[in-house]
Amino acid sequence: MPVSKKAPAPRVLWKGAISFGLVHIPVALYSATTDHGIDFDWLDKRTMDPVGYKRINKKTGKEIAREQIVKGIEYEDGEYVVLSDKEIAAAYPKTTQTIEIETFVPANGIPFVYLERPYYVAPINRGAKVYALLRETLQRSERVGVARVVIQTKQHLAVLVPVGPGLVLNLLRWGADIRPWTDLPLPSEDAKKAGLSERELKMAKQLVDDMSADWDPNEFKDEFKDEILRLVDKKVKAGQTETVTQPEPEESQSSEGRGAKIIDLTELLQRSLRKGGGKTAKAAADEEDEDEEEAPPPKAAAKKRKPAAKAARKAPVRHRRAA
User: What are the b/e assignments for 272-311, b being 16+ CB within 10 Å?
Assistant: First the structure.
């Protein structure tokens, strides 16, 4: 079995201070996460020598053809396991086009350090009512949905959060990618052992209360961006511009998604409760298809099904190229 590499010791990334009012707290920043993803190294399959970014054999310095490159994972220093493209393709998770909620947890139960990348989620193809139901239920129960989603062959853990009028899907870091606090030089969690007096705590709380306000993102500006735009505007007015000819855009083929059948919402909720929440909407729909084939419902009880969204649009994800 491949041996996992030991994570390097925490390294100081930045030194500075936290400041509020006249209080100045010197601090150091450390990376809160570590990458446990699969990192393929390029190798020359004829000699197993490492290959650089430009397909250069790092040992001979010569460029090699693409077909001479294989992918390997280093499990010990200098020892590699080589995997074929077919083996790697078979390991990719199946693209389901589904945000599959696995459980619901308290809205304040996921630490900020797990949040990675947010996406807005909006209903399409007559899915507004079910969307509103989930949004309202999460808001009233003060819970969020923990889900798995596959985006461009990569499986992500995610959390579905009600925010104002909509839902936000925030990709999460896996638990194995969060480093523990244990190796950091932190003061004791006991206030007295940390050397704090009640008078200092009271004054600090009063200062925080005096500086408290509701969150307003418009109060905070990207000063670097504003300065760059000011310089651009200045150069435009001075005529200091260059003409760049863009390449012709490639024609994209658009395809219209096929609508899927929505079963009655009340019936779906009742089924979910009977099954303990374990059956997905797709499974319920498939089950209904089987029921209809075995015992067609009376005409008086038959209802027309409305088309629903097949899937949400894929969000772009950049893949790192192995060095």
Answer: eeeeeeebebeebbeebeeeeeeeeeeeeeeeeeeebbee
Q: Which residues make beta-bridge pairs with 157?
A: 148, 172
On whether the CB atoms of residues 82 and 71 are closer than 8 A, the answer is yes
Selection from 304, 308, 306 nearest residue 282 by Cα: 308
Q: What is the overall mean pLDDT for the chain? A: 74
pLDDT at 129: 86
SS3 per-residue string spanning 61-118: CCECCHHHEEEEEEEECCEEEEECHHHHHHHCCCCCCCCEEEEEEECCCCCHHHEEEE
Dist. CA 269–CA 6, nearest whole Å: 47
Q: What tokens were used for 284?
A: 């319920």
| Bridge partners for 16 per DSSP | 27
pLDDT at 276: 67
Other C-beta atoms lying within 10 Å of the C-beta of residue 178: 16
Longest CA–CA separation in the chain, Å: 79
Size of the chain in residues: 323
User: Under CATH, what is the fold of the domain 93-177?
Assistant: Ku70; Chain: A; Domain 2 (2.40.290)
Q: Which residues pair with 308 in a beta bridge?
A: 260
CATH 2.40.290.10 boundaries in the chain: 93-177
